[in-house]
Amino acid sequence: MSKMHLDIVTPERKVYSKEVEMVITRAANGDIGILPHHAPLVSPLSVTVLRVKDEGKEERIAISGGFLEVRPSGVTILAETAELSSDIDVARAEAAASRAKGRISEHDGDLARAELALRRAVNRLDVAKWK
Ligand code: ATP
């Protein structure tokens, strides 16, 4: 199968840079599967999972917002944060989820912010199950 280059970059670091066969994620207009030679595209990403398929294996990466760019040279994800499933600290995500739930149930502070923190934590916990 032909391959394309995938880069995942955050303001802190380069998380991923490899040749891969397919990328699947949820873009602005719904779920999208990207194969080599896909039409050029830019889309915002919310809190979501990036699935990367290569040579019969699949990796999952937790993304917490950013942009997806598809160009002839490959796919670039500019993410606010991105963690490979094996890099996710489950205890930390569980603690973040429980703090956010507490703030939501007690109407403590900015509700939208607490809901977003909960979405990030739940997304990380989902991705961490993929090992
Ligand atoms: P926390 O309250 O635990 O910091 P958060 O959702 O507020 O969670 P972010 O602001 O999204 O954290 O991320 C800050 C940095 O910490 C980023 O580099 C992110 O990749 C990393 N990070 C956050 N949560 C985890 C986790 N559970 N496991 C590994 N890295 C994490």
Present the secondary structure layout.
Layout (H helix, E strand, L loop, with lengths): L3 E6 L4 E7 L1 E6 L2 E5 L6 E14 L2 E15 L2 E6 L2 E3 L5 H16 L5 H18 L3
Parallel strand pairs: 1-7
Antiparallel strand pairs: 1-2, 3-4, 3-5, 5-6, 6-7, 6-8
Helix pairs in contact: 1-2
The site of adenosine-5'-triphosphate (ATP) has 13 residues, from α1 and α2.
CATH superfamily of the largest domain: F0F1 ATP synthase delta/epsilon subunit, N-terminal
Hetero ligands: adenosine-5'-triphosphate
Decide which structural class fits the backbone. Answer: alpha+beta
Largest sheet geometry: 8 strands, mixed
CATH architecture of the largest domain: Sandwich
Share of helical residues = 25-40%
Mean pLDDT: 96
Could you name the CATH topology of the largest domain?
ATP Synthase, domain 1
Strand content: over 45%
Number of strands: 8
Explain the overall architecture.
This protein has 131 residues and is of the alpha+beta class. The protein has two domains: 4-85, ATP Synthase, domain 1 (Sandwich); 89-128, Up-down Bundle (Single alpha-helices involved in coiled-coils or other helix-helix interfaces), CATH 1.20.5. It contains two helices and eight strands. It is elongated and about 50 Å long. Adenosine-5'-triphosphate binds at residues 12, 64, 81, 83, 87-89, 92-93, 96, 117, 120, 124. GO terms for molecular function: ATP binding; proton-transporting ATP synthase activity, rotational mechanism. It is a peripheral membrane protein. F-type ATPases have 2 components, CF(1) - the catalytic core - and CF(0) - the membrane proton channel. CF(1) has five subunits: alpha(3), beta(3), gamma(1), delta(1), epsilon(1). CF(0) has three main subunits: a, b and c. Keywords: ATP synthesis, Cell membrane, CF(1), Hydrogen ion transport, Ion transport, Membrane, Transport.
